Amino acid sequence: MDVTIYHNPDCGTSRNTLEMIRNAGIEPTVIEYLKTPPSRAELTKMIADAGLTVRQAIREKGTPYADLGLDDPDLTDDQLLDAMLKDPILINRPFVVTPLGTRLSRPSEVVLDILPDAHKGAFTKEDGERVLDEEGKRIV
């Protein structure tokens, strides 16, 4: 399966998402989006395919969001996209693209919705939360 993750290795949610993909027996294409940001067209498509608004795809925490005045409700989607492309830390993460869909994987287990049910056993997130049991079945 062709899977792409827009990854930030410093982010626990992104690391957990990457490991859940690998737990499904898939080695994804890993794009460190802070080093190699998506194009405007790619970012716009990912946001739309994930069923999000541009504003929902912006990361506020740990970014210059407030300093840049991006909380102004009068800003257009184009202005918000311009800011995200200029400073990729504003792109929320991790976005994952598969043939089964595109998701902003927050929380990380959202990625399971767009992966095949072929997990290779249990999965526990870095914080100790169990996501998959020993048979690779999702724990609800």
Automatic annotation (TrEMBL):
Reactions catalysed according to its record: [glutaredoxin]-dithiol + arsenate + glutathione + H(+) = glutathionyl-S-S-[glutaredoxin] + arsenite + H2O
Entry annotated with the keyword Hydrolase: no
Name this polypeptide is given: Arsenate reductase
One Pfam family cited in the UniProt record for this chain: ArsC
PANTHER family: ARSENATE REDUCTASE, ARSENATE REDUCTASE-RELATED
Matches recorded under InterPro entries: Arsenate_reductase (IPR006659), Arsenate_reductase-like (IPR006660), Thioredoxin-like_sf (IPR036249)
Enzyme Commission number(s): 1.20.4.1
GO molecular function, one term: arsenate reductase (glutaredoxin) activity
Gene3D superfamilies for this protein: Glutaredoxin
GO biological process entries: response to arsenic-containing substance
Class of this enzyme: oxidoreductase
Superkingdom per UniProt: Bacteria
